[in-house]
Specification:
230 residues, mainly alpha, two-stranded antiparallel ribbon
Length: 230
Amino acid sequence: MERAKREVRVEAALAEVWTHMRELGLGALAHANRHAAYSALENPRWPELSVLQAAHAAELLIRARIAEEHPLLAFEQLPSSGRAVGSTLDVQDLFNHGRTLRWADLPERLWATTGLAIPGRSRFDRFGRLRNGLQHFGPAADLDPSDETLRFVFEVVDPFINDCWGLFAIDYDEDSEPYVYLVHALAHRELPFRVSPGAAACFDHWEVDWSQLSPDYAAEMQKRVSTAGA
C-alpha cells in the first residue's frame, strides 16, 4: 500500500517537471528582454548577459515542450537503477544524476517527440555559437549583443511559445512599465513581434513615433495591434 502511494506521488511530481521548466524559462526570458532593451550604469555587461539569459530561456522552454510529452524525454542521460533512491525512478534521482539535452540536440529531439521544428533554425544554431563564443572569448567586435538577443527572442522564441502555449514574448519583461521601453527597442530596430491582447490594450503608451519608421513596418505593426485577440 505504501509503495503504491509513493509511486503515485512520484508520478505526480514527474508530471509537473515540464511546468517547472516552462515557468523558469519564462522567467529567464523576462530577464533577457530586460537586459537587452535597457542599459545600466551599475553593470555594463547587461547586453552580454542578455545573450546568456535568452539562450538559457530557449533551452528551458524547448525542454519543457519535450517534457510535456513525457518528462524523461528531456533528458540525455537517466540515472541508473543502482543510483536510484528507491525501487523506481524518482525526481530526486533526476535532480542528482540526470543529464538534460544539450543545445545542439534539442531541435531533433523536439521534432522526434512533438513533430515541431524550431522556428528560425539557422538563427537558433547561430545564437548557440554566439553564446558559447561570448562565454569563452567575449563579444565579437562586429556584433551588438542586445540586437542579437532581441532578434533571437522575437524570431525564434516568440513564435515557438506562441505555437506551443499561446504565449507572447512581449508579455515577459521585468520593467514596472510594461510595453514601453521593450516595444521601443523593437520598433527602433523595425523588428516585428506578435502583439498580445495585453500589449494591444496599452498601445497608447507605447511611445513609438511611427512617422520615423518605414511605412511598411508601421502598417504591419498597427495591423497586428488591431487584430490582437481577434
